[in-house]
Amino acid sequence: MIHSTAKVGKNVIIGEHVVIEKDVVIGNDVAIGHHVVIKEGTIIGDGVSVADFTLLGKFPFTNNNMARKPSKNLSPLFIYNDVKIGSHNVIYRGVTLSEGVLTGDLASIRENVTAGKNTIIGRNAMVENNTQIGENVTIQTGSYVTADMVIEDDVFIGPCFSSSNDKYMGKGNEQLKGPVLKKGSKIGNNASLLPDVVIGEKAIVGAGAVVTKDVEEKITVVGSPARPMTKD
Amino acid sequence: MIHSTAKVGKNVIIGEHVVIEKDVVIGNDVAIGHHVVIKEGTIIGDGVSVADFTLLGKFPFTNNNMARKPSKNLSPLFIYNDVKIGSHNVIYRGVTLSEGVLTGDLASIRENVTAGKNTIIGRNAMVENNTQIGENVTIQTGSYVTADMVIEDDVFIGPCFSSSNDKYMGKGNEQLKGPVLKKGSKIGNNASLLPDVVIGEKAIVGAGAVVTKDVEEKITVVGSPARPMTKD
Amino acid sequence: MIHSTAKVGKNVIIGEHVVIEKDVVIGNDVAIGHHVVIKEGTIIGDGVSVADFTLLGKFPFTNNNMARKPSKNLSPLFIYNDVKIGSHNVIYRGVTLSEGVLTGDLASIRENVTAGKNTIIGRNAMVENNTQIGENVTIQTGSYVTADMVIEDDVFIGPCFSSSNDKYMGKGNEQLKGPVLKKGSKIGNNASLLPDVVIGEKAIVGAGAVVTKDVEEKITVVGSPARPMTKD
């Protein structure tokens, strides 16, 4: 079903059982897989690929128990040229994916996230709302990027990374502060970051480390709790 | 496809390419997204939302190698009023979701699980069979809740939590015992719980902690293995 | 939609909104759920079950930033007799699933992976490309199996396992080396393995351990970094 108000460019391949809702705009040379759903107002550039079973432009919902309600006035989902989106993705309204971004299968990205050019958001990766991701960032498979994070350019995040933004674990009205990963920092697989920590430029967090306080630039930390690596 | 024996209430919105099998009952004021599959016998209350690509009422299957076979006689999937279910969920037959429950996208919940009122089961969260979850519980994104757990009311589980129920790792006939999380306990992100541990009322498990034995009420534990937090 | 060149055996059940592309071969006594997509050339044996929303035979794609490009000439996806595949799976071209394999819901398996007889690949498990998995292996829920791993027969991997294959975290041209899990080794939940470590036969890695170097056969290691377990 392609809504009559949707605009579809030239040389666009559309699979079986696709749903394209009203006011969607699709550029040229785009490939849409089978069973894809594109919600109203989504804007897709040229040369984009979207694999099967992916949902683009989802509106958030909430229940009475959530600490923070999603914002009501979200801009459309913008997908720039040459983005490649895996299968079974869930990408919300209010997201911007810049040129050359790639997402793995089963990735999900919530509202008000931006991802810079050529950034990779891996298989099963989860990116929560209001997080800003720079250019040439790699977020590997199964990583959890919490809300309100800042991830600068050239950051590398290994698989199964975990982060949190809530010091008081669900008590309610306190301000949530996600970690900040400065330019070129690298995070090993299955590392955990506590709320509000800052990882300095080109710093390295070892695999499985539990980072409870800021890490200075170019320093390598390991262990639980994470401490600067020593020579012995 | 809506089977002729299914009963659908008033003011129900049903998306494209939806499959509703025999003997399904859907209440009033329900919104069913595109590509949703509702298996036979599922019962859905009033005011429920189900997002796209979600599978409700799945029957379990097994192979020769599984330690324990799924039970054959499962009650239907019951979804009470005002439940909100994310996209790409897999929720099995034999599950009960109480009023006001919310599930994130890509969540999965196996047979014989109950979730109490207003509980949140986060994005990509996995809940195994025979686990009982109380009211006002929050299970955050990417958490793994093993089989045979008991999670009491008001528990908060941070993202990427991991649990296990099998001391002997797949050897076979031993009894499986999931952890017990007592009322109001809080678990930090990426913490690991071993089989059969009990986390006391209002106890706190720090991020990344590996909990190998019981934690008493109101105590905070951190580290690997987890130990009570000291002042220095 | 079943392509005219597809061959479908006897006693095959096919759900609603299924897409079967060209040159697919399906054996006898097969059950295909609703909304399943089977890409061109996929070969499915007798007695196979495929649950809803699953994508079989996906071709990989890439972006400019990926360290290693997927191989161009992939053999078809081969699914042998009596395999059971969960819902919302993504299984790539170039994969071989031997007789009796079971995959959980939301599992994904990339190109050039083989899984031996009766192996279980759990719910939400992620298996990267070029990994060889033996017979009677259990990979539990939410585990991340990196590329280029070797997992021998009878290995047990607990839930939320994490592994990595890239010592230099995305720098580029170095050789990637996944861990090796020898026959009968057991890995606890949420353990992390660094690149290139070898876990010996019947060795045991404790829950939450961070394994930075090889583990000898029959030894048990725990902690971060992992060390042999002592008696006290």
Could you describe the 3D structure shown?
The structure is a homotrimer of 232-residue chains. With 232 residues, chain A is mainly beta. Helices cover 0% and strands 29% of the residues of chain A. Chain A has strands at residues 7-8, 13-14, 19-20, 25-26, 31-32, 37-38, 43-44, 49-50, 55-58, 78-79, 84-85, 90-92, 96-97, 102-103, 108-109, 114-115, 120-121, 126-127, 132-133, 138-139, 144-145, 150-151, 156-157, 162-163, 180-181, 186-187, 192-193, 198-199, 204-205, 210-211, 220-222, 227-228. In chain A, a hairpin with a 4-residue loop joins strand 31 and strand 32 (227-228). Chains in contact: A-B, A-C, B-C. Chains A and B meet through strand 24 of A and loops of B.
What's the quick description here?
The structure is a homotrimer of 232-residue chains. Chain A contains no helices and 32 strands.
Topology diagram in text:
The structure is a homotrimer of 232-residue chains.
Chain A: E1 7-8, E2 13-14, E3 19-20, E4 25-26, E5 31-32, E6 37-38, E7 43-44, E8 49-50, E9 55-58, E10 78-79, E11 84-85, E12 90-92, E13 96-97, E14 102-103, E15 108-109, E16 114-115, E17 120-121, E18 126-127, E19 132-133, E20 138-139, E21 144-145, E22 150-151, E23 156-157, E24 162-163, E25 180-181, E26 186-187, E27 192-193, E28 198-199, E29 204-205, E30 210-211, E31 220-222, E32 227-228
Parallel strand pairs in A: 1-4, 2-5, 3-6, 4-7, 5-8, 6-9, 7-10, 8-11, 9-12, 10-13, 11-14, 12-15, 13-16, 14-17, 15-18, 16-19, 17-20, 18-21, 19-22, 20-23, 22-25, 23-26, 24-27, 25-28, 26-29, 27-30, 29-31
Antiparallel strand pairs in A: 31-32
